[in-house]
Design a protein that fits this description.
By secondary structure, the chain is an all-alpha fold. The chain has a single domain, classed as ABC transporter involved in vitamin B12 uptake, BtuC (Orthogonal Bundle). It is built from 17 helices and no strands.
Length: 352
């Protein structure tokens, strides 16, 4: 009688549940190393602090950049990490804006409470609409998000008794932040407030991006079918990340309302979704600071071009978009790389 064949077992197979195997420990070390704050990140936030002292006359523009950067960061969660393109992301931005305004008008004017309320209401809207994205192709999702955004914008227009309709929501004022820091006409408090909120949001997104949840989102983006085959719950992940992104977009909208003490149907307009998508195209998707860099570039380009050519500034923005899409950001960077031209000149000199 022959003995049964022996089965080779590895350390991972014999490890007790809850113990860290060498492979798991190595994965944890890799994720911890990738999640370390890099030098350029410190430079970004140091520049934001220095801007407060060096550019006192540009506080309103800098505040707008911070809000747009947060809005782009929220879209990057679903586009850059989960691969879900949206043309209706302004719906959550507008919901947050109106929630903060209504809170200040009918309840409390404390900005932080308004932010929390805007985040919750927008996240709820994102959760309910996320189930519409679970079926169909990318084109289906694109049109679904566009349809949801258009419906919410039209609903806000019809509910003039609540939103103010075409006249906008007015008659409210934003109280001091935490009861201590009042908003001023020069926008200094609004800038600091917006940058602090942006910083906290980026730190939350960093934690998401460098976690197993963030890695599973990248797997879904690459191939959702294959991700499901390795037990990644794609449906649940899409619902969660879309809800989180909607909450962040709502916070960005609330910041706009609180720093301007006004909101209107413009916060729900289609151009909001198109602009934030353009910001991500300029800044890059799939990494944490693409939305911030894109917001800086887009705002500066828009302001400078609208002054130089008031009637045709959108033409130049569109031309930039076409160039970025056709040639790619990396290829353009290599064209203007100093070493590239130095090697070419050296080669011509050797040939002569």
């Amino acid at each position: 009688m022959t003995a049964p064949p022996t089965v080779q077992t590895s350390a991972e197979d014999t490890a007790l549940p809850g113990t860290a195997t060498p492979a798991v420990a190595e994965a944890r070390r890799l994720m911890a190393r990738r999640s370390r704050i890099r030098l350029f990140e410190v430079a970004v936030w140091a520049a934001a602090v220095l801007a407060y002292f060096l550019l006192p006359s540009k506080m309103l523009v800098l505040t707008e950049i911070a809000i747009l950067g947060l809005f782009a960061q929220s879209l990057d969660l679903v586009l850059g990490f989960a691969g879900i393109i949206s043309l209706g992301h302004a719906a959550f931005f507008g919901i947050g804006a109106y929630t903060a305004g209504l809170m200040a008008l009918h309840a409390v004017a404390e900005p932080v409470l308004g932010l929390l309320a805007a985040a919750l209401v927008s996240a709820l809207a994102g959760f309910l609409s996320s189930f519409l994205l679970l079926r169909g192709s990318d084109l289906t999702r694109l049109m679904t998000t566009l349809g949801v955004g258009m419906m919410i914008a039209e609903a806000a227009n019809k509910m003039a008794w609540l939103t103010g309709g075409a006249d906008g929501l007015t008659g409210f004022s934003t109280g001091p932040v935490l009861g201590l820091f009042a908003f001023d006409l020069w926008g200094k408090t609004g800038y600091v407030y917006s940058v602090v909120v942006l910083f906290l949001a980026v730190m939350v997104c960093r934690r998401i991006a460098y976690s197993p949840f963030g890695l599973s989102l990248r797997a879904i983006k690459d191939n959702s079918l294959r991700a499901g085959m390795i037990a990644v719950p794609a449906t649940r992940r899409i619902v969660i990340v879309y809800t989180l992104a909607a909450g962040l977009a709502g916070i960005a909208g609330a910041l706009l309302t609180q720093t301007t003490s006004f909101t209107s149907l413009d916060v729900l307009a289609f151009h909001r979704s198109a602009d934030v998508l353009l910001v991500l195209v300029i800044g890059g998707t799939g990494y944490l600071y693409g939305g911030i860099f894109g917001a800086i570039a887009f705002t500066l380009l828009r302001d400078s071009l609208s002054i130089a050519t008031p009637q045709y500034w959108m033409f130049w923005i569109g031309l930039l978009l076409v160039v970025l899409v056709l040639f790619g950001r990396d290829r353009l960077a290599r064209i203007f790389e100093p070493d590239r031209w130095r090697r070419r000149l050296r080669g011509k000199g050797d040939a002569a």
